Amino acid sequence: MQGDDAQPTAMDWCSPDATRRDRAARAGLRAIFAAAVASADPRRILPTHLPPLPRGRVVVVGAGKSAALMAATVEAAWPEAPLSGLVVTRYGHAVPTRRIEVVEASHPVPDAAGEQAARRILAAVRGLSADDLVLALISGGGSALLSLPAPGITLADKQAVNRALLHSGATIGEMNTVRKHLSAIKGGRLAAACAPARLVTLAISDVPGDDPAVIASGPTVPDPSTFAEASAILARHGITPPPAVAQRLAAARDETPKPGSLRHAEFRLIATPAMALQAAAKRARAMAITPLILGDALEGESRVLGTVLAGIARSVRRHGQPLAPPAVLLSGGETTVTIGPETGAPGRGGRNTECLLGLALALDGDSAIWAIAGDSDGIDGTEEAAGALVTPTTLARARALGLDPRALLARHDSYRLFAALEDLVITGPTLTNVNDIRAVLIVAA
Hints:
By secondary structure, this protein is an alpha/beta fold. It has two domains: 10-38 and 274-442, MOFRL domain (glycerate kinase, domain 1, 3-Layer(aba) Sandwich), CATH 3.40.1480; 42-271, 3-Layer(aba) Sandwich (Rossmann fold), CATH 3.40.50.10180. Helix content is 38%, strand content 17%. It has helices at residues 10-13, 18-38, 42-45, 67-77, 112-124, 142-145, 155-166, 172-180, 189-194, 227-236, 243-251, 273-286, 302-319, 351-363, 394-400, 405-410, 414-420, and strands spanning 58-63, 83-90, 101-105, 133-138, 198-204, 265-271, 290-298, 327-333, 369-375, 387-390, 424-425, 436-442. The strands form two sheets. The protein has a six-stranded parallel β-sheet with strand order 3-2-1-4-5-6, with helices on both faces. A six-stranded mixed β-sheet has the order 7-8-12-9-10-11, sandwiched between helices. Helix 2 packs antiparallel against helix 12 (273-286), helix 8 (172-180) crosses helix 10 and helix 13 (302-319) packs across helix 14. The two termini are 20 Å apart. The model has no long low-confidence stretch (mean pLDDT 93).
């Protein structure tokens, strides 16, 4: 019988044995997800992007969920180089290093540890010469972890705005536009502090479109956004900021460095959501599944995207359009979960489990469709699971346990359903982040 850790084959997808097909589908989807995550492992990809060593000093700084593993990889690639510096990563994401200090801090809401780390990073790059090199290691999560408030506002002010944005349905680009204008280090300000030293940024993208100015709120690149845009975002989402924040945004002084500046800075993308989806597609082909990449930058409400994916999957199953089964629909990006006042106290769950529950309800037990969705960093929102799996029996098994899937979706409690079914995908911190990976598998009925 097909085991969860075995390699599914073409025969599994057309087997009349429902149990065999289910086991193969689960194993295949997990393998596709794992291939996408593995493609962004900095130990595999970072060394080929390192610049030549300079005549002067090498100062390594960084922020993000992958920052510690990226720093350890730099140490391994440059075993004799006199490295110094500091990187900040999320609690539980540290790895051992010898020459580059690693500090842990809070994500997604910043804390005092992140503030202190950001202050020290800014100090570490000041006073360097043109013979020196600053190597910045940037990955998803860096925006919350580099939490140095701009003059006149406090960490508590930033925390309040951050929490409001997280519940508002704002896109990651919108959130980071606001964050940059409340920060003393983001939006190119770290790069400005490095001059005249050469600055090379190695970045792992976790944002739709891979815009360097959005990844971790762009601490090492010019920023095209403005104070006026930040104010408009808060107004559009009905967020009333603390008085000090409102005053800073209204004054619109001390703008971020704009395009055309920061000529000493170079930016290199080493991993992206598109690269991860290509790796997932390659793994699918090896299992005799035809992949279709829908896009690496899908956004919008999580549950709505689940309904859309279900519609495409049903077209594949019923009409062989836009491709014939066995097939897998692959997508990436970052959806949102808007928690309105009508929800009451929300339950547990992240954007991936919410998307999957929306998909399951739209499929209504379709016997030939399975799905997986998860955050490539191993954490869906604030939960310990990366995401979950949907099978043809998801709704029936949930109802047999006395759970109401629609009611759970209405109160954003999707985690509870998948935990009860033991269908959570738990990887632990992967120490990388190329955003969400979704795969919908359609087999012959």
